[in-house]
Amino acid sequence: MEQLKTIGRELAMGSQGGFGQTKEFLDFVKSIGEARSKAEEDRIVMQEIETLKKRIVEPDIPKRKMKEYIMRLVYVEMLGHDASFGYIYAVKMTHDDNLSLKRTGYLAVTLFLNEDHDLIILIVNTIQKDLKSDNYLVVCAALNAVCKLINEETIPAVLPQVVELLNHPKEAVRKKAVMALHRFHQRSPSSVAHLVPNFRKRLCDNDPGVMGATLYPLHDLIGLDASAYKDLIGSFVSILKQVTERRLPKSYEYHQMPAPFIQIRLLKNLALLGNGDKQASEHMFNVLGDIFRKCDSSTNIGNAVLYECICCVSSIYPNTKLLEAAATAISKFLKADSHNLKYMGIDALGRLIKISPEIAEQHQLAVIDCLEDPDDTLKRKTFELLYKMTKSSNVEVIVDRMIDYMISINDNHYKTEIASRCVELAEQFAPSNQWFIQTMNKVFEHAGDLVNVKVAHNLMRLIAEGFGEDDNTADSQLRSSAVESYLRLVGEPKLPSAFLQVICWVLGEYGTADGKFTASYISGKLCDMAEAHSSDDTVKAYAVTALMKIYAFEIAAGKKVEMLPECQSLIEELAASHSTDLQQRAYELQALVGLDAHAVESIMPADASCEDIEIDKSLSFLDYYIQQAIEKGAQPYLPESERNGMSSMNNFSNQHESSQHTLKFEAYELPKPSVPFKAAPPSPVNDFSLVPDSSYANETRQSAPYVSVSDRGPAELRLRLDGVQKKWGQPSYSSATAPTSSPTPQKSVNDGGGEASNSRRDVPYDSKRTQVEISSEKQNLAASLFGGSSKPDKKSASSSHKSARTNNQSVEKIQATSELVEQKTPVQPPPDLLDLGEPTLLSNPSYVDPFKQLEGLLEPGQGISVGNHNSISSPDIMGLYTDGTTINQSSSSSMASKDDFNLLAGVSNSVTKPGSVNKSAQPNKGFNPKDFLEKDALVRQMGVTPMSQNPNLFKDLLG
Question: Of 826, 843, 825, 829, nearest to 630 (Cα)?
Answer without folding.
Answer: 829
